[in-house]
Amino acid sequence: VSLIPPRTLKGFRDLTPAQALARAEVVRTAEDVFRAHGYAPIDTPALEYAEILKGKGGADSDKELFEFEDRGGRQVALRFDLTVPLARYVAEHEGALVFPFRRHHAGPVWRGERPQRGRFREFWQCDADLVGATGEAADAEILVVMAAVYRALAVGGFTIRVNDRRILSGLLERAGAPDLAVPVLRALDKREKAGEAVVLAEMAAAGLSGDAAASLLRATEPGSGDDATLAGLARAVRGSAVGEGGVEALALVRKIALAGGVEPAEIRIDPTVARGLDYYTGVVFEVQLDGAKDLGSVGSGGRYDDLAGLYTKTRLPGVGGSVGVDRLLVAKEERAGGEPKAPPAEILVAHPGRDRLPEAFALLRALRALGRSAIAYPAEAKHDKQMRWADRMGVPFVVTLDPAGALHAKDLASGRTFTAADANGLLAALRG
Amino acid sequence: VSLIPPRTLKGFRDLTPAQALARAEVVRTAEDVFRAHGYAPIDTPALEYAEILKGKGGADSDKELFEFEDRGGRQVALRFDLTVPLARYVAEHEGALVFPFRRHHAGPVWRGERPQRGRFREFWQCDADLVGATGEAADAEILVVMAAVYRALAVGGFTIRVNDRRILSGLLERAGAPDLAVPVLRALDKREKAGEAVVLAEMAAAGLSGDAAASLLRATEPGSGDDATLAGLARAVRGSAVGEGGVEALALVRKIALAGGVEPAEIRIDPTVARGLDYYTGVVFEVQLDGAKDLGSVGSGGRYDDLAGLYTKTRLPGVGGSVGVDRLLVAKEERAGGEPKAPPAEILVAHPGRDRLPEAFALLRALRALGRSAIAYPAEAKHDKQMRWADRMGVPFVVTLDPAGALHAKDLASGRTFTAADANGLLAALRG
């Protein structure tokens, strides 16, 4: 019989135990913070009717769908994010839900992108959204929740760069170019990477006058602090009602978020943050790690006007945040200096053979009852083989049952050995 | 613009917050127990090459696959269980893995079955396997782990019904019908539901003599206790080497499992447990809840000889257990007397409007720092509306900021009201 080659699909990957543990830890941490702030989990199917998913994610999204006809002749597709399923969910269950509705959701999504380094066709998203609420309380709440997530993740200092799309609209209105939002914001977005000359050239190409472009660049320069930035923006949008409203709202959102527990160092008003031009309508934000800015955004979100307008006539505004699980894992690996190690237990109980197994298992039970993680070598094997296995797995201590029932323990790192009569004695000696 | 009807595919479902919380709790509990026993998580993609998945799950499995051609012309399919991906994983990463290899894995799987009450086309599996180990230590370890899972799940009393496929082989050998394993086991499996007359008739139809069938029925009757059952089985298989080996092994597995922490009431030797005829080769088990036997098995597993023989020439025997997540959720719902309630927080902070939001958020921060779950009504709304919302969401306490900064609290269940000056005073009053 010829073998079937064991392989994963192009753009897909397995997670090793260390990688899977690290991802589970990030997701659990975020979920715990979300729940502590009143966000409940939901789940939606991986597969949806294709018509639910199509035409929602911009130009490339449809081409990247894993779409097919099922055996019942239905056109179906794998979800490419968790936001479109949320929109379908709130529309489908509108009558049963109580709004404002706080939900979180973590799970895999699928996009048939051209595989690149660090980009996969299956990856995780981890979102929290507050649907059916407008105003500064909701916007500030999302910032409080996101800051609590990154603090709990213990990835070092982070900055939530916050803006409000209405400020950008006000600036464009003042520049006499309210219809140029898309090309101008796209140009502004390149400031950090490409430099101001490129931004000015792109704005000119879009049809903005040189004066207007220069004042836009000046107005969106971060100030020496949030109060200065806000004061500068207030001056720059004066006379534009939408712009003035945006500046006032952003100042209040910041004040509420600080009162609610966001530390001053964790938040920065940044008028260059644009994001999701067709989608976000109010506050927008990106999260950066202070020690890994080259990694780009490790989280983002913002306010939208109408989540589920394609599925229901009810207008459902909301605000949400998304935790960038994969980039956080890269950051955590870099901080740890390589792939994390995860030994299966602290203590290996080595045993001389099958007739001593009940004794070995009784010792395991006693060690576990004392709160220690302990495992047996799970087969009959020579003592040397059991020791080598412990060493390869990174288990730090090996305890061996001797013929008289005494316990011989060895610290594999230091080579230190000691003897004990029982589990309690062993733990006392381990601490020694 | 016409709306797209918001609906899930036939056989698929959304989980409400209460359902999603309940499932997450079951899965987390199992994962925590698995990890405490040295089992590390892995993850594998939802999509695999179709050739990896086909021909593995019995006659109906291929027909139930969600299979399609991707945009790269590859024939791909959604995984229908977590065992075939494990087999592919250990074969693909054989050189990098250290055996014996303990892994756990929880996640969704997909089968295009005809939808029935309580059966869905997407459902969760939650497995632990120990690969590359033979013998009683490994078999007993899986029983210890499974018992610890069900104990941690707090679903009441449970029984792990254990057997060894070799005992059944021995009994058939002694009955002179070693080749009739499949029809005879299928007949024996019906004993509880259909009665002995049906079993005898089916055995006769399969070609077993009346005497042999009767003695098989007698030999597989559970005894008055495990020792009696084992003694009866030892007599019945005497002269069959494989049968004698099976009885001896099962007795030792039981003894080790008891030493390792399985309570005597949690395990029962039951020679009628057959399971997975084509797959399992040694110990086999099923878990039943004592208070919900009609629910059937809420977990199962056993030993297999050759996990990954289709993908590698290396023989990888192992033993595994699977936690029946969906049935456990049904059992938990029944115990709780309906769908679980999950209020988003203990305390709602009601606020009079946007200029008092920083104060409201400072109170939330203080309550959270004191270890309480507290949320704000996340929008501007009349006080009555905020109270009604708390009531509908099941939030037990509402705290209202008054103009002078004092806190007015109300216990929505009892109607009791009280006043406090700050978060500490509030918590003291809540306890009162």
Characterization of this structure:
- The structure is a homodimer of 432-residue chains.
- With 432 residues, the first copy, chain A, is α+β, with helices and mostly antiparallel strands.
- Helices cover 41% and strands 20% of the residues of chain A.
- Chain A has 16 helices and 16 strands.
- In chain A, strands 1-5-6-11-10-9-7-8 form an eight-stranded mixed sheet. Chain A has a five-stranded mixed sheet with strand order 13-12-14-15-16, with helices on both faces.
- The mean pLDDT of chain A is 92.
Strand content of chain A: 15-25%
Q: What average pLDDT do the residues of chain A reach?
A: 92
Helix content of chain A: 40-55%
Oligomer: homodimer
Largest interface: A-B, 108 and 108 residues
Coarse structural class of chain A? alpha+beta
List the total number of helices of chain A: 16
- The biggest beta sheet of chain A, please? 8 strands, mixed
Stretches of chain A where pLDDT is under 50 for at least 5 consecutive residues are none
Q: What is the C-alpha radius of gyration of chain A, as a whole number of Å? A: 28 Å
Instruction: Please provide the count of β strands of chain A.
Output: 16
Shape of chain A: elongated
Distance between the termini of chain A: 57 Å
- In spatial order, strands of the major sheet of chain A run 1-5-6-11-10-9-7-8
